[in-house]
Amino acid sequence: MHDDHDHHHDHDDHQHGHAPPQKDHDAGPMSAYEVLEEAVRSLLIEKGVLTAEEIATQVDVMDSRSPALGAKVVARAWTDRTFKKRLIGDTRAALAELDIDIGALAEFRVVENTPEVHNVIVCTLCSCYPKMLLGIPPAWYKSLAYRSRTVVDPRGVLAEFGVAIPEDVTVRVHDSTADLRYIVLPMRPKGTKGWSEDKLAAIITRDCMIGTALPHM
Amino acid sequence: MVRTRARADTPPARRFSPGDAVRVSDRAVVGHCRTPWYLRGKTGVIASVHGTFRDPETLAYHRPGLPALPLYKVRFRQRDLWGRYAGPPGDELEVDIYEPWLEPTKGRMANGE
Description:
The complex is a heterodimer.
Chain A: H1 32-46, H2 52-63, H3 67-79, H4 81-89, H5 91-97, E1 107-112, E2 117-122, H6 131-134, H7 144-152, H8 154-160, E3 170-175, E4 180-185, H9 197-201, H10 206-210
Parallel strand pairs in A: 1-4, 2-3
Chain B: E1 21-24, E2 43-53, H1 56-59, E3 69-77, H2 78-81, E4 92-98, E5 102-104
Antiparallel strand pairs in B: 1-2, 1-5, 2-3, 3-4
């Protein structure tokens, strides 16, 4: 169809609002990747590899994951030393104790911050992230700046997050390039003795488990 | 639902053990590869053994990724990676590397635990 008639909607000069201010998520033409995703998805369904229901179920699983889940795990590790030991020794099994299934996509490792070592997580190759424990990663985690600078200047990056690690503490960067997903077990702040797991979980933020923040009371 | 990266059941013989000094192969590669470029030719030490995992370089092209490969956590000193690392000498970087990318070396046994 030709679009060569001269009635042209110029929205710069002509703002009496044909559309609601919130853009429809599927307004505008599809990107090449959106077309590809839809094509592959419908082929997988057509050929019986997956069902639409399985895809919807997996979306629900992903949506159920958020930093609150990771915080619950950390709070348990802070209050139960034997759980912490199991969590570090066999993360998959320890998480299963809390009814957390991390799926078959990757193994998980918990790296513990100590007075001697501060850990920070990055994926320089893409943006590997412990989604099954922390949900969808923040946009900055996937940015080229975070991915490239964290390996070469971790202390500079941490300073931008407001985290200063003393010179006598080792900063250990984990570049998660393969089949393992990492989560940082932060140190429990002083002055939280006797706190319930729920109260502790409330101070454990997403960034504490990436290593770009420290928990504060 | 996602099955492609499950652990393989039969572990092959491992070439390296924790504490071994290793050098990351400096070869070029065409296609999917999970060994970061900035580590090529660098020397580190095996920190731990993760087990065996399917080979991502063939898995990425719809092949089974077998035989599965030993995967190691390799620890590097930041000062050995970058010419002008600004932090203290004790700072470290750990990366997961598949065995075919590691070569034995007589390099320094840096930071072995």
